[in-house]
User: Which sequence fits this backbone?
């Protein structure tokens, strides 16, 4: 009997220890988790200026303004409260200006009861104005070092103020989550780039090679992907932008199109549209007499998904052959226009041609990798485009 009591006490004590294993847990409502970070050129907000006039200042240079989007929103503390109409998730946008991102994060503690934490940071948006002035590697130095921030966090550029992309949109919608979710549309259109997270960005910056990042614009609480910004490898700074069609063209060159459309006009100037079902691209590099050239072969299968010319019958093979050539010509024009832009205007390899040289001609690559953008801008590129129309939809009417 005594042994049973002792055994019971031991088991009870053990269960008590297990049950107290979460005594340091914190309710999510008591945390200030920021899910979005926007970086703009340094312009202190009205609230910051007001606080500084009253003594709320410290030694700094106003190089950048950091805006964090905090969820769940707490009404206490400084910042601009935003929420959708009616019930729904609430969030808080609050900004601070300085010249050290880590110091800015600590400054938030002077205005909020709870320190902001970045364990659930989903997206970083940086204005092209700021990246034009400051090296991207420097701007993200703290972010890339911080163990709290997950490497899966994605990075975008913005035309206009980055913090505007965090404005309230539809009811119950958290802007930072929306931006990340928009990237899921990559399988529907080639105008959306494959996401670049912190791990991938760190690798790109370390390579000192030029690359592109998805750009976003904002207006009236809405956001839209608007093309891509070019980051020069040598400087780590933004040098210009590509439009949506350019991004789509680069996706075709790199073989990253998973869906989308090619629109053109037939011989009666009526709109016709090709829906992409599948595609593949092969970039071949050739070195002869120490001279480099590229050939890009693009193949795709798809359907005639829209045809405004009521006088034509899409089911006829001769019609399909004619419109196939129209679509091939349209894509060829797109690719050549984009190539001209990146080779002649910006003089950078924004389409990954260097990767093929590195694999196919490693000895030659070692000679040119330090000045690859210059070499690429003078390298001829040819295209071979072949479309196959598999069907014309469920109706010819």
Assistant:
């Amino acid at each position: 009997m005594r042994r049973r009591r002792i055994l019971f006490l031991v088991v009870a004590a053990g269960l008590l220890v297990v049950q107290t294993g979460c005594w340091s847990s914190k309710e999510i409502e008591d945390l200030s988790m920021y899910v979005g970070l926007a970086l703009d050129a340094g312009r202190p907000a009205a609230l910051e200026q007001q606080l500084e006039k009253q003594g709320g200042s410290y030694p700094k240079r106003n190089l950048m303004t950091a805006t964090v989007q905090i969820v769940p929103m707490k009404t206490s503390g400084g910042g601009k409260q935003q929420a959708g109409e009616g019930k729904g998730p609430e969030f808080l946008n609050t900004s601070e200006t300085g010249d050290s991102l880590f110091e800015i994060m600590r400054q938030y503690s002077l205005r909020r009861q709870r320190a902001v934490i970045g364990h659930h940071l989903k997206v970083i948006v940086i204005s092209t104005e700021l990246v034009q002035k400051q090296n991207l590697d420097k701007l993200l130095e703290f972010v890339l070092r911080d163990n709290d921030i997950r490497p899966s966090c994605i990075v975008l550029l913005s035309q206009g103020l980055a913090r505007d992309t965090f404005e309230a949109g539809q009811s119950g919608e958290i802007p930072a989550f929306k931006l990340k979710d928009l990237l899921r549309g990559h399988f529907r259109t080639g105008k959306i780039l494959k996401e670049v997270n912190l791990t991938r960005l760190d690798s790109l910056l370390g390579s000192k090679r030029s690359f592109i990042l998805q750009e976003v614009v904002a207006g009236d609480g809405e956001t839209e992907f608007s093309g891509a910004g070019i980051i020069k490898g040598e400087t780590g700074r933004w040098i210009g932008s590509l439009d949506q069609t350019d991004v789509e063209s680069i996706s075709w060159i790199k073989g990253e199109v998973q869906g989308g459309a090619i629109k053109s006009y037939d011989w009666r100037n009526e709109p016709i549209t090709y829906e992409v079902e599948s595609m593949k691209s092969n970039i071949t590099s050739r070195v002869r007499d120490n001279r480099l050239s590229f050939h890009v072969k693009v193949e795709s299968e798809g359907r005639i998904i829209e045809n405004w010319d009521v006088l034509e019958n899409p089911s006829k093979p001769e019609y399909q052959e004619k419109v196939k050539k129209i679509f091939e010509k349209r894509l060829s024009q797109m690719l050549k226009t984009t190539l001209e832009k990146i080779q002649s205007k910006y003089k950078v390899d924004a389409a990954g041609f260097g990767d093929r040289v590195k694999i196919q001609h490693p000895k030659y690559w070692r000679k040119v990798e330090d000045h690859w953008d210059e070499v690429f801008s003078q390298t001829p590129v040819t295209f071979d485009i072949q479309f196959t129309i598999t069907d014309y939809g469920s109706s010819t009417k």
